[in-house]
Structure formats: C-alpha cells, structure tokens
C-alpha cells in the first residue's frame, strides 16, 4: 500500500514537534518518519527513536547509493535526510507517514509526492518569540543559537510554498486546527 504523507515544517522552535506528537496520539493510522542525521545526540534522545544517528561517512555513502528521498546539509557539516526505506517501512505497516522536517526538506518531499502529500508550514507568532523559545531550551551555544536565528529568518520566507500555513500563536488552537487539516486530508 502506498499511503499518504503529512509534512510539518517550520523554523526550529516554532512548535512543529509538539504538534506532530499531538497528532500521533490522535491518529493511530499515522507513523512518525525517523530522519537520519550526522549530528550528536541531545539530552534524552535515542538512536532509532528520535533519529538514526549515523556518521558523516555513512550518510554520504547512503547519498551516493541513492538511499535518501531527500537530504541536505542543514547546518555547516551537519546533514539530515529521509531514507527511502523509512517511508517504505511505514507504508508496509499499512500506515501514513508524518514528518517533522526542516523547511527545504519539506518542500522537496511535497514536490516529489505532490497530491499524496499535505505540506503544512508552522508559523511562529514572531521572530522574537522564536528567539525566546530557542534560547529557553538551553541546548545550544550562543554561536549555534545565532546560526539558528539566521536560518529561521530565511525559512520564514518559504511559508507560501506549503499547502497550508498553520499559525502557532496558541498551541491548543494550533493542535486543533492541525487535527482538522490532517483528518480532512486522510479522508480524501
């Protein structure tokens, strides 16, 4: 069975991960796509649960063998990507795939899967609020935070390339709107 793809993209700190986790509880027919990355584990993250943490060499080997549906160097020297085998694994379980993915990756997935994909851009209330959220995490160095801020400003310009812009000014409202959007898409 080829299922559908639900893509959530946003700048880091916009709330997409929280919304995706909410939807996974509401829709048992969804399964989370675990991305591959070359970055280090953070906090309580686990390999094969949050990400497939692999070396840069292994990542580039998989790129050379066309094992990724999409990939990119998100931050200098840090790669992220969606393995073709991950989508196939979920479809083989008879489920639809939900993504929590960076903006450029989201655009690439939508372009590849077209009508089988719903691409949702989660928009934060403002860049200032986004900066507060990222700083409040306490997981990044000042240099890494600055890198994220610059990237976020650029990513906000891509919102109109998505099927829907979901404004996350209030999390409960954004989750309810996301439920409606996903429910309607899965009924098609």
Automatic annotation (TrEMBL):
EC number assigned by the record: 2.7.4.8
Name of the top EC class for this enzyme: transferase
Q: Which SMART domains match?
A: GuKc (SM00072)
Q: Which top-rank group of organisms is this from?
A: Bacteria
Instruction: Print the keywords alphabetically.
Output: ATP-binding, Cytoplasm, Kinase, Nucleotide-binding, Transferase
User: Known PROSITE patterns for this protein?
Assistant: GUANYLATE_KINASE_2
Q: What residue stretches are annotated with the Guanylate kinase-like domain?
A: 3-183
| Main location as per UniProt | cytoplasm
**SUPFAM superfamilies per record:** P-loop containing nucleoside triphosphate hydrolases
Q: Where in the cell is it found?
A: Cytoplasm
Q: Where does ATP bind?
A: 10-17
Note the InterPro entries from the entry.
GK/Ca_channel_bsu (IPR008145), Guanylate_kin-like_dom (IPR008144), Guanylate_kinase (IPR017665), P-loop_NTPase (IPR027417)
Family designation: Belongs to the guanylate kinase family.
In its UniProt entry, what is this protein called?
Guanylate kinase
| Origin organism lineage | Bacteria, Pseudomonadati, Bacteroidota, Sphingobacteriia, Sphingobacteriales
Annotated gene: gmk
């Amino acid at each position: 069975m080829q299922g559908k793809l639900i893509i959530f993209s946003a700048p880091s700190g916009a709330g997409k991960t929280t919304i995706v986790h909410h939807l996974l509880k509401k829709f048992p027919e969804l399964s989370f796509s675990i991305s591959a990355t070359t970055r280090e584990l953070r906090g309580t993250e686990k390999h094969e649960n949050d990400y497939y943490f692999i070396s840069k060499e292994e990542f580039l080997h998989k790129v050379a063998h066309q094992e990724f549906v999409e990939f990119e160097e998100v931050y200098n020297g840090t790669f992220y990507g969606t393995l073709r085998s991950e989508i196939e694994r979920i479809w083989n379980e008879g489920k639809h795939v939900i993504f929590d993915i960076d903006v450029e990756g989201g655009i690439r997935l939508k372009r590849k899967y077209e009508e089988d994909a719903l691409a949702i851009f989660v928009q934060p209330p403002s860049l200032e609020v986004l900066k507060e959220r990222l700083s409040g995490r306490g997981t990044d160095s000042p240099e890494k935070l600055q890198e994220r801020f610059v990237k976020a400003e650029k990513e906000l310009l891509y919102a109109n390339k998505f099927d829907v812009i979901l404004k996350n000014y209030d999390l409960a409202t954004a989750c309810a709107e996301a439920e409606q959007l996903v429910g309607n898409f899965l009924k098609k």
